[in-house]
Amino acid sequence: MKILFIGTANCTRSVMAETYFKHLCKQNKLSEDVQVASAGVDIKEESETAPEVIEIMKGLGFTLESHSARQINAELADESDHIFAMDKEQISYLEKNFPNNAEKCRLVLSLLESSDELDSPHSGDMETFEHCFLSLMPALAELIDRLQRSQQ
Q: Which listed CATH number (3.40.50.2300, 1.20.1260.10, 1.20.120.140, 3.40.50.920) goes with 2-150?
């Protein structure tokens, strides 16, 4: 199974989702069955992982030196079984540019039966980034639960 997390520039929310979800997969012995990646809908040449994200992930024991932002493309969309976006603008982009994959796309917080978007912390302070990550955690835990139940 291939899961893809989508952000805008692939330097904050989607990176946190990818990194933490890989950890959850490993922790729950799903890493051989589940491939996890992230991408963005609007990558700029200067897109770099936010220092706040690096710090948060480092505090949890994860390193992000090898992460580099990448643009979503047809191949990534086609290969993915599930595509989780952070906001409705990204969903619209995916539906417009990859209509054959629209049924795979949903908001990450919809895993919690919510129609809320996960706001970008990009222009906020460290507390804003931490709040964003804490908002992601229950949705990612729910996704792990669903994957485990589907394998039983």
A: 3.40.50.2300
